[in-house]
User: Fold these one by one.
Assistant:
Number 1:
Amino acid sequence: MDQATGLRRIVSPKPVKVIAVSGGKGGVGKTNVSVNLATSLAKDGKEVLLLDADLGLANIDVMLGLNPAYDLSHVIAGERTLEEVIIDGPANIKVIPASSGITRMANLTAKEQAGLINAFSELGHAIDVMVVDTAAGISESVINFCCASHEVIVVVCDEPASITDAYAFIKVMSREHKIERFQILANMAHTTQEGRELFNKLSKATDRFLDVMLTFMGTIPYDERLRKAVQHQRAVVDAFPRSPSALAMKRIAKQVDNWPDVEQMGGQLEFFIERLINSDADNAGVC
Ligand SMILES: Nc1ncnc2c1ncn2[C@@H]1O[C@H](COP(=O)(O)OP(=O)(O)O)[C@@H](O)[C@H]1O
Ligand SMILES: [Mg+2]
């Protein structure tokens, strides 16, 4: 660490809060939640990094109409710095585009690992929150990202497959990876009652069979404005800030902002990357 970096850490020792947005099923709204949560937090004055950990079709750069020239694979290969890869999103959020490097995280060479840890450590001093938009399913990569995060938001909607997939996700994370705490967010609900019932359904099953603690974060209503925002490649909190889904997203962001600060040795972003690339079944981050 050079002197300037050391000095910055002394001046700004606050750890970076890392939040994974997951849920098991595709199409439940993970990417929209990630983008709008990140944008709302940034509008509230936070420095936010948004990591696209899903190589799927509707990823963050498409959602926001961004055209990334580089991604994390270029950082891993030592061809670009992290700063060169990051692009600006709404409210100045910093977006790390999706990358084939994501699924290779657990299999990097020692040199690649060191390079990546270094890249994130240099960035960490300026960041308050990192939001990680994960892929659907329960792949090794999704699990690793969630294990390395401080909090896991599980997005669910009123479809039988969403509830069963969320349950399966929570089961694997708790039984095999010792993650006990999950934040449940009901999306695309037609009433707040429907959102609450979704949570009750899920927690009834987990209370019965699993040793986990679920917290209900609230409901994002089904909102045509959100769809319109997606069509216009904008975050709904940016395009239609007074729409029902935008107001709900902002409420969720306030809640996230009120979560207690994380305690973390040294507490900077490199710890996330270290946990990510060293992750195995015993290496749980959320607990
Ligand atoms: N609250 C909502 N109201 C209306 N439509 C929504 C809402 N949330 C998501 N959608 C729709 O669902 C689609 C999939 O959302 P997305 O965030 O890409 O899901 P995921 O990342 O989980 O696959 C969006 O493009 C949008 O059309
Ligand atoms: Mg997505």
Note: The chain has a mean pLDDT of 87.
Number 2:
Amino acid sequence: MSTDSARLAQIGTLRAQGYVVVPNFLTTERVRSLQGLARQELLARRVPLELEADLRYPGAPPSRSAAGGQTVRRLLDAYARNPEFAASISAPAIVAWMKAYFGEPVLMSRAHHNCLMTKHPDYGSLTGWHRDSRYWSFARDDLVSVWLALGPETTTNGALWFVPGSHAMEFSADQFDAQKFFRSDRADNAALLGTAQSPPLNAGDAVFFHSNTLHSAGLNRSDAVKFSLVSTYHARSNPPQAGSRSDSVPEVELG
Ligand SMILES: O=C(O)CCC(=O)C(=O)O
């Protein structure tokens, strides 16, 4: 299959199920280099970063001063953090994919994702069911994120789970809690969550997923930190709403 037809097939899968796994998206050399940089960045602890204790998701330390309270969750602003991160998340293969999906020029948000996501065996938290669009403000809920696995991701080390087709479903406000997590204690929600899938990823695989796709992720029960490079894209005709957090940082024009 040519690159163009493979991309169109991937876009078709994303449109149908809300996410698509693209195996071997990064070369082995690129993964090795990004992994090394990721470890350096974690050791250096340069700001901006987000700590598990700030989020307080299940499994996180209760405060910054508690045991494990300095555990990093996200090394933010991947785009400015290192030129190789910037090159990887604005790579021609991603731009071509997004232009084919949106059918127009695309931008990368620097306000959302744009991070090196870590998940630690100790003090790393799980993330409940949610739509990324819950706190994002754009003209339309039509953005696509790319999750680049820098190592294997499985249910053992806290891989993502997705609900197929949920990007296109209508939900009522009371199906979500006050923090806009999808409530798993409701029978209707639980039935839907029973259809969720956790695609295992190898180092260098990518998952493209829609901003309305319900997803979650578990705890890391392995003995190694998990690293993923995550970024988000939208069409030029779908700008962030003026004055919102989505509009708080200049975006990257990808043409
Ligand atoms: O790795 C995780 O816990 C999931 C992260 C996630 O879903 C998010 O940041 O939107």
Note: The chain has a mean pLDDT of 97.
